[in-house]
Amino acid sequence: MKTLSVWSSLLSYARLLALQLKTSALLALQYRVDFALDALVEVVWAVSALVPLLVIFETRNTIAGWAFAEALLVVGWFTMLQGVIEGAINPSLLSIVEHVRNGTLDFLLIKPKDAQFLLSTSRFSPWKCANVITAFVIFGVALRRIERTPTAVDIAFATMLFVAAVAILYSITLLSVSASFFVVRIDNLTYLFSSLFDVARWPSSVFRGALRFVFTFIIPFGLMTTYPAEALLGRLPVMRLAVALTIALAFVIGSRVVLRRSIRHYTSASS
Q: How far is 73 from 181, CA to CA, in rounded Å?
């Protein structure tokens, strides 16, 4: 009976997520020309991320041991994650800040579903899917230049690392917006993280000393883009994959604990 109850609950959440996605898609498609233009702008932004790479490789063959086509794989993962964070993570989580300021978070907290799930799935930006499509094009170009076809194991490792990267990005964003329960303005904090995320377009071996430590263990950008690229190249040790998944799990658990404690400090508009 308990197993049936768990499956029934999971099915209920899956249906609710599908409904939220459908609602966001319908809202975005109300103005189809705007939708197409927004998607086109995303493609232009994604392609523009290649410019610094093209400039640097104009005068050298490798950078920190990475050839141009190999570095393209890192840019591909960066582009895909940028689409996920701007299309699926930020729209919902950043709205928490406004709910806290206006005292309207009550409308979500009183619903008979998990508060974190509702706060994380209330809004999506479907046109950001253009980034994901652009990322697959970059992968195709890079792998063709390398003349390598990833094995099923390589793809499985890269997929697990992508899930870990999304979990870490989601957790970091959740930790950032949780600060809004204690301070009025956290805009600078979210802008700072968005700016820092730009470094993820480079292989982690580019950075040295303290920066390499920070971008590997504190804010693990290297795990998010460099590790999946190494997985597609077939040179990622299994131990590094295990460490990455462990770090992602720690981020997820830590961010949930922080959010639950932060909500206890919330006072509604009527309080």
A: 38
